[in-house]
């Protein structure tokens, strides 16, 4: 470990348990907030905010609003990245979590189209953009808290804890939707794939309002953190950049591009396995665009079962990436995703057992590809621009992968006359792009996150102290 800068006090260290809990709980809350919207986008928003459209158009409109948040995420990455690289990780994480919590709570009190017309839809879009903006700053900060405080040889393992927030948030969010559906069942003889009248009137709001409780817990946990020792040393050495965005674009453009495409298959796979699959699984077999015909409760329980494998293999991926390297692990996993896309439709065609196997395999691959990203993306960038660089790569990839994935999948589903084989080919094609990026990149396992970078007078975006000045 580098020697302390002369004249400075020893840097306080976060206990390992606090690091893991803080990085996990924040992303769990953020992903919970994000995915309850994804569930509502399929289940109730087409009827509540786009009632004048036919069912397919309403669903696509709801997905379009869902995707709009992805556009806001890179903006959030730039803004929160600037704050995180200038002022520190802890303060920025608190602000991002609070922003997400307020936006999610407000969705729970929005008027519907029947009550306020287009104003209701516009407010929904605005809150969704705020969610995306907040998530754009959350992930990279949580990943940095975990990896910058990790012991030697366990950085990828520590990096899986913020990643674990994705499956946990999904399980909590959808579990709460299931609970509300059980408490507010449809009338006898009603379509079991459709929510009850009470659920449409007020039941859907409960998961959004409940986020306030979770955010309060998350803020308390994060308030007990001390600043990252790596960032503290960089700041003490005068390595804080006045314009982190300019520095990372000018000096680390290749890493930005590689990081963006390394994340691509992960995003496409996840949003196909969650958002699209929920639409496909619930669509009736005799619909204009046939689906699997499962009731909402049945299919969500199947999804949650699959997500358990997502959580388990997210943790498994950390030791694998620490032992064999991030690049090597991800090359093999991404190649498996290519194959998975090719066997997508045949698996589903085997009936319920095949559908369960499809979900288990998809979410297992999701855990194996998502877990190492918590270490790999931060390792691509030096301390002074790590928040900005990792955040931009992660969130620009969300536009290329997540924002359009459900929308494209629905269009391909229709083009295939109800068969998902074109959707599988789309996943394989995106995975090939990720595989190319991995082959062009380098292994980052032995990269030091404590780079001791100092100011350079000839740097146009030269460093400043965290309190300002140039």
Automatic annotation (TrEMBL):
<feature type="transmembrane region" description="Helical">
    <location>
        <begin position="19"/>
        <end position="38"/>
    </location>
</feature>
<feature type="transmembrane region" description="Helical">
    <location>
        <begin position="58"/>
        <end position="80"/>
    </location>
</feature>
<dbReference type="InterPro" id="IPR020846">
    <property type="entry name" value="MFS_dom"/>
</dbReference>
<dbReference type="Pfam" id="PF07690">
    <property type="entry name" value="MFS_1"/>
</dbReference>
<keyword id="KW-1003">Cell membrane</keyword>
<feature type="domain" description="Major facilitator superfamily (MFS) profile">
    <location>
        <begin position="19"/>
        <end position="445"/>
    </location>
</feature>
<keyword id="KW-1133">Transmembrane helix</keyword>
<dbReference type="InterPro" id="IPR036259">
    <property type="entry name" value="MFS_trans_sf"/>
</dbReference>
<feature type="transmembrane region" description="Helical">
    <location>
        <begin position="294"/>
        <end position="317"/>
    </location>
</feature>
<keyword id="KW-0472">Membrane</keyword>
<keyword id="KW-0812">Transmembrane</keyword>
<feature type="transmembrane region" description="Helical">
    <location>
        <begin position="355"/>
        <end position="380"/>
    </location>
</feature>
<feature type="transmembrane region" description="Helical">
    <location>
        <begin position="116"/>
        <end position="135"/>
    </location>
</feature>
<feature type="transmembrane region" description="Helical">
    <location>
        <begin position="256"/>
        <end position="274"/>
    </location>
</feature>
<feature type="compositionally biased region" description="Basic and acidic residues">
    <location>
        <begin position="450"/>
        <end position="461"/>
    </location>
</feature>
<feature type="region of interest" description="Disordered">
    <location>
        <begin position="450"/>
        <end position="470"/>
    </location>
</feature>
<feature type="transmembrane region" description="Helical">
    <location>
        <begin position="156"/>
        <end position="182"/>
    </location>
</feature>
<dbReference type="InterPro" id="IPR011701">
    <property type="entry name" value="MFS"/>
</dbReference>
<dbReference type="InterPro" id="IPR005829">
    <property type="entry name" value="Sugar_transporter_CS"/>
</dbReference>
<feature type="transmembrane region" description="Helical">
    <location>
        <begin position="202"/>
        <end position="221"/>
    </location>
</feature>
<feature type="transmembrane region" description="Helical">
    <location>
        <begin position="92"/>
        <end position="110"/>
    </location>
</feature>
<keyword id="KW-0813">Transport</keyword>
<feature type="transmembrane region" description="Helical">
    <location>
        <begin position="392"/>
        <end position="413"/>
    </location>
</feature>
<protein>
    <submittedName>
        <fullName>MFS transporter</fullName>
    </submittedName>
</protein>
<feature type="transmembrane region" description="Helical">
    <location>
        <begin position="329"/>
        <end position="349"/>
    </location>
</feature>
<feature type="transmembrane region" description="Helical">
    <location>
        <begin position="419"/>
        <end position="440"/>
    </location>
</feature>
């Amino acid at each position: 470990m580098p020697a302390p800068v002369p004249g400075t006090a020893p840097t306080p260290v976060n206990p390992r348990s606090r690091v893991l809990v803080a990085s996990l709980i924040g992303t769990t809350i953020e992903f919970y907030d994000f995915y309850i919207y994804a569930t509502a986008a399929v289940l109730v928003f087409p009827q509540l905010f786009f009632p004048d459209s036919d069912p397919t158009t309403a669903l696509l409109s709801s997905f379009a609003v869902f995707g709009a948040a992805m556009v806001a995420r890179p903006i959030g990455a730039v803004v929160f990245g600037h704050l995180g690289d200038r002022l520190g990780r802890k303060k920025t994480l608190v602000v991002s979590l609070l922003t997400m919590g307020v936006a999610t709570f407000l969705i729970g009190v929005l008027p519907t189209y029947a009550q306020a017309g287009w104003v209701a839809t516009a407010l929904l879009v605005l809150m969704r953009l705020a969610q995306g903006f907040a998530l754009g700053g959350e992930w990279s900060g949580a990943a940095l808290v975990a990896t910058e405080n990790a012991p030697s040889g366990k950085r990828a393992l520590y990096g899986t804890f913020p990643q674990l927030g994705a499956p946990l948030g999904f399980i909590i969010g959808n579990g709460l939707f299931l609970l509300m559906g059980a408490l507010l069942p449809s009338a006898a003889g009603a379509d079991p794939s459709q929510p009850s009248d009470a659920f449409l009137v007020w039941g859907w709001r409960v998961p959004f309002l409940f986020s306030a409780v979770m955010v309060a817990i998350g803020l308390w946990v994060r308030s007990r953190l001390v600043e990252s020792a790596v960032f503290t040393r960089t700041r003490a050495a005068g390595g804080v950049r006045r314009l982190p965005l300019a520095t990372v674009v000018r000096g680390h453009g290749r890493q930005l591009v590689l990081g963006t495409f390394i994340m691509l298959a992960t995003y496409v796979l996840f949003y196909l396995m969650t958002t699209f699959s929920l639409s496909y699984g619930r669509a009736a077999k005799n619909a204009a665009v046939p689906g699997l015909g499962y009731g909402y409760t049945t299919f969500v329980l199947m999804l949650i079962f699959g997500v358990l494998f997502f959580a388990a293999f997210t943790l498994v991926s950390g030791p694998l990436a620490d032992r064999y390297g991030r690049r090597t692990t991800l090359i093999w996993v991404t190649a498996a995703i290519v194959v998975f896309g090719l066997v997508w439709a045949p698996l589903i065609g085997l009936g319920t057992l095949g559908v369960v196997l499809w979900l288990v395999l998809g979410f297992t691959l999701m855990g194996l590809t998502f877990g190492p990203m918590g270490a790999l993306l931060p390792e691509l960038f030096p301390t002074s621009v790590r928040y900005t660089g990792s955040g931009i790569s992660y969130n620009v990839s969300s536009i290329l992968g997540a924002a359009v994935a459900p929308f494209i999948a629905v269009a391909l589903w229709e083009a295939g006359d109800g068969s998902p084989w074109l959707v599988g080919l789309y996943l394989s094609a995106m995975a090939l792009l990720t595989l190319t990026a991995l082959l062009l990149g380098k292994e980052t396992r032995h990269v030091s996150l404590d780079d001791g970078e100092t100011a350079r007078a000839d740097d146009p975006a030269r460093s400043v102290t965290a309190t300002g000045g140039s």
